[in-house]
Amino acid sequence: MNSDEKEDCECAPLQAETSPAEGTHREYEEPEIENPEASRMKRAAAKHLIERYYHQLTEGCGNESCSNSWCASSVGFNRMDNNAAAVKALELYKVNAKLCDPHPSKKVTAPAHLESSAHSNSACSNSQLNHKDSHSVRDNFKDVNYLTEEKVYEILDICGEQEDYSPLIRVIGRVFSSAEGLVQSFRRSKPHTKEELKLGEGSSGENEVQRLSPDELSVDIDAVRRVYERLLSNEKIEAAFLNALVYLSPNVECDLTYHNVYSRDQNYLNLFVIVMENSNLHSPEYLEIALPQFCKAMSKLPLPAQAKLAGLWSHYSAEQIRRMVETFQQLITYKVISNEFNSRNLVNDDDAVVASTKCLKIVYYANVLGGDLDMEHNEDEDEEPIPESSELTLQELLGEERRNKKGPRVDPLETELGIRTNDCRKPLISFEEFVNEPLNEVLEMDKDYTFFKVETENKFSFMTCPFILNAVTKNLGLYYDNRIRMYSERRITVLYSLVQGQQLNPYLRLKVRRDHIIDDALVRLEMIAMENPADLKKQLYVEFEGEQGVDEGGVSKEFFQLVVEEIFNPDIGMFRYDEHTKMFWFNPSSYENEGQYTLIGIVLGLAIYNNCILDVHFPMVVYRKLMGKKGTFRDLAVANPVLHQSLKELMEYEGSVEEDMMITFQISHTDLFGNPLMHNLRENGDKIPVTNENRKEFVAQYAEYMLNKSVEKQFKAFRRGFHMVTNESPLKYLFRPEEIELLICGSRNLDFLALEETTEYDGGYNRDSRIIKEFWETLHSFGEEQKRFFLQFTTGTDRAPVGGLGKLKMIIAKNGPDTDRLPTSHTCFNVLLLPEYSCREKLKERLLKAITYAKGFGML
């Protein structure tokens, strides 16, 4: 056979001769020694079965009367998205679930690699039979090393006429498996001449590309989308994309890792844009090899390239962003479900999961950039730096130099882009869509936190990508950080006492009288804040004078509750209570000094630091201000809805504002005693009328005064106290404002059914004990207030922790036989000591009395 005949029999370029499945399996076979052929066949069979389950879940068998509950053709089947179908297909394969045979009325869809193989064989035979007809066609496309939309359509039309798509498959295989070819493809350029289109020759495209700004790319994204839409409908051609991606990705990874290719040609990003436009990336065929390899390559992009890619994708629509998010999320979920991760086999060591998480970060910041940004209204930094510990010199001598001196950690991509997550008021798609629950379930947070603190290149920490973690997981990471800092302060204190010969005091001890809790606590905290702020980072230990309770956490919980009740008492006048919103706001005319507000900030910080939940009711703007963002008109919707509605009507008024409303840039509000106070929003504001032209400025300045200027002194003191405790914490790095509120206040939703599911039993009780069944029946029959009393009695707070009551580990222990004694509790450990009462009525009566009149601590 001569060389021309050999070429005619080829149906794809040499790089793409093997099917995706075969090619990828061979990569795994190379290191194997024992029976590689059997291993390959086993994997191929498993992959084929999983694909059949997937198609059964998404397309069905075609039999309208199918009785298989896991078939899309069966009556009552609940449709699922591709991500859920892929996970379910894997589960069905593991349990060997029923597979439907295709109904005669439905054409069987063969897997892509089989289709490609069958097509290759038929194309070979066709080429031999029609040698003279096809040889000239193929010769025309030999030199096509990059593609344009017009060239693709030309080849497609010719292949359609010949009923032979092998020339197009060859071209796709050649171009999409070559980084250089893909970078040059689909450029935004002047139209090609007919001669250039016919010959596929001419310049490489460099000279034709339009002058673009640094933020733009030279790829024509709309053209890429139109081409994919035409080609992906043909399953034979789709296999060529898959095959090419398998060969492309390792070369791209090598280019980025060792050859610094992006610095030489920023258009190298084109290939990532083109590949990510493939709407089939999330399909099962890609999840095994192609997509993980591509993610690994993309994760090697340098920081400027990641920022540029995020900037480009920020112009995409919400649906396009969501498609990319689902692609990476499905790969993460697939890898998590198909592997057994544990403390010995960490998910942090899985290259595919780590790489796809890094890629997801780029999309996350594109989502932030493309959302509703507020870059202007930022709180001023504290004028006075937070004082360092007096122990600093000793720490340096001992090699314990304090970390994060320059402030909290900041994501490098945030710095490169010049934005923060908190700058985004409303992203393109919700932040919750970036959370991957299966990953959170298998993540060993103690190990992940260690990697986060050590910051080595060898170990990846998911805490560096907090968007993928839920609030429960992040709270656990914060808990480890706080505890380690407490132990560090304790160790330093011990060493300090040995060197200086001073009294050992490893805890932040507060001894208070229940009737004078504010005076005792705040005076003591004020002394500590002035003398040695580092003591605030020690573990809190509270003792109520005259009571025997030992603080293992429960006494601190009650301490915080009593302090909050006193501080937010309207009679004190530090905060104003809004009957309409049921929330508190800083009193701008308070007679208390700034030090009192600083101490309240310290209390809030201590609550987070010691993992205690507070019953505070602030509007969300307070937490945004704590995270560095000023309040704006939009925040008034929650903080002061009546004022917000009035100003909104002013903005929308269609008549003459000046003539009809007769308002000026002077506003009035009342102090704590109801006395009117006047304030000019501008100089001589009482003489400046509000008009249709300046009303927007009036509304902005009104909101600025109410939320920022009027309470500036009070809030700055409050924030300063909060940062005294949390300044070295990863709090700002991990949490968004709404999550900070959840962290401080807990969840308002009380699901006692979830609590029942997670409760454990001790001392002879179990789930089936008579008294336990009667206990839960009684508790479920309580009203909302009585249920909160029960939580307060058992756990020390009437709020659910982050994640809900299902995350609360409560224990019910037997406390003797039937008796007249009341139930008791250990709030430090969430333990309820319950005697075995003789009947349900007695149980209810004793329990209600215990939770209603419980106050104080004693030794049992």
Keywords, please?
860 residues, mainly alpha, 4-stranded mixed sheet, two-stranded antiparallel sheet, 39 helices, 12 strands, 52% helix, disordered N terminus
Task: Give a summary of the structure in a few sentences.
This protein is mostly helical and 860 residues long. The protein contains 39 helices and twelve strands.
Instruction: Kindly report how far apart the N and C termini lie.
Output: 97 Å
Mean pLDDT: 80
Secondary structure: number of strands = 12
Order of strands across the widest beta sheet?
A: 9-10-12-11
Beta content: 5-15%
| Number of separate helices | 39
Function: E3 ubiquitin-protein ligase which accepts ubiquitin from an E2 ubiquitin-conjugating enzyme in the form of a thioester and transfers it to its substrates.
GO molecular function, one term: ligase activity
InterPro entries: AZUL, AZUL_sf, E3A/B/C-like, HECT_dom, Hect_E3_ubiquitin_ligase, UBE3A
Catalytic activity: S-ubiquitinyl-[E2 ubiquitin-conjugating enzyme]-L-cysteine + [acceptor protein]-L-lysine = [E2 ubiquitin-conjugating enzyme]-L-cysteine + N(6)-ubiquitinyl-[acceptor protein]-L-lysine
Task: Provide a descriptive summary of the structure in words.
By secondary structure, this protein is mainly alpha-helical. Strand 7 and strand 8 form a beta hairpin. Helix 2 runs antiparallel to helix 3, helix 12 (235-258) runs parallel beside helix 16 and helix 17 (303-313) crosses helix 19. The protein is globular. The model is unreliable at 1-34, 105-136, 191-214 and 388-406 (pLDDT under 50).
